[in-house]
User: What shape does this take?
Amino acid sequence: MTGHASVKGDLPQRRETGILKLKNSSLHARMSGRKDMSERVVALLRRARNDQDFRTILLRAAPDELSNLGLKPGQQAVLLSNLWLTSPFRPEDLPDWDARYGHAFSWVDYRSQAIPWTPFKTPFQHAKVAFITTAGLYRCEDSPFDTQDEEHGDPSYRIIPTETSPEALCVKHHLGLVEPGIDGDTNHLLPLRLGQQLQQEGTIGALAAEHYSFMGYIPHTQPLIERTAPEVALRLCAERVDAAILIPV
Assistant: This one.
């Protein structure tokens, strides 16, 4: 790794052979005991946010060095994207994501497929609008999303009626940093209150009766593409929804 300090350099003595090769350290022991993506990634993110040296080392690390902490390619991408995108950065400093992790997410490359662009002709003030979030939001009375299947993820969805109150909603996401806001507010994850306000103001024609939530970690996308996404599309059509606004998390 030329052009910057090596991860095996002489940073504080909390690492003997390089912070990402801590086979005998307390950090590595704690990490090896963590089973799912949420625990592994959140532990590293929290430490990096309180330790600038550690953050710098993670951002400069090669994929094989991150693998020594037990991170799979998908976990590495989640970790690094959160480190980069939650603080000021220059676009030229970002890594080549395709080169580093494209092999782990080959399913996201649809450049060879035609995009079925559909002109939006209905004026918004007459349109019925639905929200689709990937925040892992669900009604607390329903079953939560499955965050344990790292190989396949959870392609299922939850239906959230417009009248659902924030206190009746829970969050279960593969990345434990996704959570309700102050006093349990969930409008940053599913802006039902804003939608109701837009309807009252006449900015949109109507808010759909039902909205939809996915959990944004689905490495095995075939069930999503072939079953659950078409199901949601059919439900939107049945309700004669004109526009679906996506809230990616």
